[in-house]
Design goal:
heterotrimer; A alpha/beta (327); B alpha/beta (160); C alpha/beta (659); B: 160 residues; alpha/beta; Rossmann fold; four-stranded parallel sheet; 4 helices; C: 659 residues; FAD/NAD(P)-binding domain; Alpha-Beta Plaits; 5 domains; five-stranded parallel sheet; 17 helices; 34 strands; globular
Amino acid sequence: MTAKPKVAFYWLASCGGCEEAVVDLAEDLLGVADAVDIVFWPVALDSKRADVEAMEDGEILAAFVNGAVRTDEQEEMVHLLRRKARVMVAFGSCSHMGGIPGLANLWDKEAIFDRVYRTSPTTDNPDGVVPKTEYASNGHRVTLPGFHDTVRALDQVTTVDYVVPGCAPTPNIIAAAVGALLSGDLPPAGTVLAPDVALCSECDRRDTKPDDLTITEFKRPHQIIADEDTCLLAQGLLCLGPATRAGCGALCIGANMPCTGCFGPTSSVRDHGAKAAGAIASLVGADDPEEIERILSTIPDPIGTFYRYGLPHSLLVRKRQPAGATE
Amino acid sequence: MSDTDTTETAAAFEPTIVAFFCNWCTYLAADLAGTSRMKYAPNARIIRVMCSGRVDPQFVFDAFAKGADGVLIGGCHPGDCHYQEGNTKALRRFTLLRRMLTDLGVEEERIRLEWISAAEADRLRDVMNEMADQIRALGPFRLPDGAVAPAAPRREEVPA
Amino acid sequence: MREPNGTPRIGVYVCHCGTNIASTVDVAAVRDAAESLPGVVLSRDYKYMCSDPGQELIKHDIAEFGLERVVVASCSPCLHEETFRGAVGEGGINPYFFQMVNIREHDSWVHRDIAAATAKANDLIRAAVRRVRFHEPLEPRRVPIDPRVMVVGGGIAGIHAALTLANAGKQVYLVEREPSIGGHMAMFDKTFPTLDCAACILTPKMTQVRAHPNIQIMTMSEVEEVSGFVGDYRVRVKHHPRFVIEDACVGCLECIDACVFRNGKTPDEFNLGLSKRKPIYIPFPQAVPQVVVIDPEACIEFRAGCRKKTCVEVCAERNAIDFQQEVTYDEVTVGAIILATGFQAFEASRLPQYGYGRLDAVYTALEVERLVNASGPTEGSIVLRDGSTPTSIGIIHCIGSRDKNTNEYCSRVCCMYSLKLAHLLKEKTDAEIYEFYIDMRTPGKGFEEFYNRVEEEGVHFIRGKVADVYPEAGNTGRVVLQAEDTLAGMVRKIPVDMVVLATGLEPQPDAEDVRRTFNITCGSGGFFTERHPKLAPVSTFTDGVFLAGACQGPKDIPDTVAQAGAAAAEALALIDAGHIELEPNTAFVVEERCSGCRTCVGMCPFSAISIVDGKAVINEVLCKGCGTCVAACPSGAIRQNLFEDEEIFEEILGVLTHV
């Protein structure tokens, strides 16, 4: 019996949803497990970093890495896995574009520590202690990984060969990716393994969208009971389907919720949020500056809306730090 | 920009402004300023588009990402668009874009949308000077040194 | 043929433009900097790139060095983009494998600092070099041209342009909002400096217009809306009711005599209110068309109804009068449009110090034109409002001209028409005439000679601007003109019986609306802007729309007619080509990338985008190339020729690579 190809799964700054997504493959997971030798999967298997370090470079066929990079440890693990794996797969929105953790790029380390360890209402920390990378306790040296100012997507840390998009990636997308990997029938490196066309292409409600749609008020999902057959954008819900890569089968829209953009942009777009915001703003049903301002003010949090999954991957990467701030 | 030395003083700093001008009004105003031999601050680099409606917000973000200290969009006055209403599309986008940029820490003075007709060379000159002065006072726009912009997406049909 | 690294071979040319560029931009340094850019295989500077040898240089280098892309850094692309594209095409590569860099209007002419201007030129050239690598081979779009022309405005400019075109066999629609063509010229008595009778030279032309089989006159009509584009303009024309059927009216004018109003009560527009007209009237004896018009504001049929309708009775079986007429509309298709919408005279009451509208003795020049005219309100005798004949007359120049409080520009015609009026008034009254002028501007053929003649006739010239016009003490009916005589160095107070205000020329009050309707631009004074003052003086930035006469700026009749001829010639050149080549800057949908989201459909003001089988499709003929849909497409599925996303991103990177 020839050796099965080795694969690794790893998580960085993430919620664990991507790990769930792998489990969500259900019976298909057994097929994967049959076909490959999972050599590293901290969430499920008791394998250690040292085990990976002991491998030959390139010994692993593919490393599926989910989560964004925000600590020294995560960065080290990324470089380690990159060395050991022939194919690096960014798995899920955080790894692809920075994801929800990437919204931390609206602040920096100092502000985050201050909030989390000092000023949040449920914090009791009279000494104002915040995490340090080194600490001496009873003669022992205790260390923690360094915490970065800026959250990064995987491709901002190392070379990424393929992206499996989604928050979390849907089973069909994962299965197709694994299938392609095992068969060796792979597209050019750098490809996002989902259709290169926006979600409207697979949305059942597409043809209910009027040609001359204009929006005079953006509504949030809790404010209306959306009709289940009509284009959500046409109902004033800010659906990012037109700007977001297809492949999920319009799952959220099937649940009567607008697309929030987790698959990221198509390959023709460099900045998902800027492009989506430009397209959505174009639909504003007013010409007068004040009226335009009023209508757009019904979008409460443009950055959180248009960069929900991708602020680190945006052209500006993060909120600009004031002059003199430490990087 | 990444290797900008931090000792750069405000006095020595000259901002670079990327200007997207529509072919029919503001670009021509800049031509007229030239034929009229008006003098204005040399900070802007004009990129011609047919209409301010062509200005994709990505261009503005990209300009800042690549080192611009300010971005100026110039179009025809409302009602005067050569293409009827491309400028109002620009205004709608700009309104949201400016808010997003402000949220991302970009000072309002760094990003402007101005309606400048083909006849308003003097206004063009004034806007150029004013913007250069304001941004000079603000200092350089810098992305964090640790920030790495993603690689440009690859397109299958690589142009000839 | 490409270099192994796949980048095309680029040639860069830096123009000195004599010293226009080279005095502020270090062209040698710019040339050297360009040479080091990736892909650039050749970089030259040259005295005049637009000259034949300059163009030959490009052609030669394409052949000799296998250039695949060309960048020329010189003046504005509005000037010479076509020139260089032509040279590139003749050199044997696609003409759109070219990018122009504006280092004159946008650089050397607007900056003083050589280092800064040179750095700017380097940035702009770097952007162009990066961009041009992405250029695709393109073909200009050819669209057919409708051979018909619309002329808007029936003054001397419109009349001359219409006749020129019609004589060349083109069908012309001549649109005039007044009841008759003729414009301001029809109101003038004589024309300077030859003293031709204005009516004698204009009337035959008006008659020719009326009789010409190729001209359709639309009086009492205005252009409501223009759509389409060069070669295929759709013009919606609004016809105001005349209440007289033009084809039925024979111009006998019996209805005017028969009107229940024995005398006119309405100020006569043609005589500027110096006489009265009836509710049914003909604007002036030589009006074209020779058709009466009813003023619904004045006619009792409209005000009270059911009266005798004496006009209808006398018209009898000719049946030309139709009180039921309403506003109607026509839509016509034309290939080109000539705007000849003229001017309005400056409203003299805006300068109260001159007493117009307050002092009976004060007249505007245009009123005096009517007073001296044999068919005017006084049949040519100079009778003032109080019934007297003036023995002394003051003429004040530059009313509403050369004055920062009103109009900064010189109206060009006032000195000459003031001299003409001085001559005519002198001839008719033998009054003492005083001309108050700032500078005497007589720069036309025979103009200075005319000035000398008028001076010899005994007209007094006082160099100075009148500061005040006030009634003479003692209720004499006379007014005093107070001015500083800047030649004599003293203040003069001259009592006169009559004052003539030489009012300047202003844009029509609705020039702004007209400008928008035709999608052209106005200069700061409000006159329509020509495409280029020297190279394209009758063209506008809207292809196929041309300018003639005072709508473009104040000018006299000879210049107006010359310009009208030029506009007609430009329109003819356009039409007779049979087709026009348009910039191939249309947008197109990359079908496999389109999700059918419809965002683009509503973006297009020209309805060029539709959804076919779930994908957007752009009609190339309707697309005008603004690129708004490209920016709006949320998934980047729409591209625009000549303005591809990559091309613009490369320009952004190019201009910023120095930082």
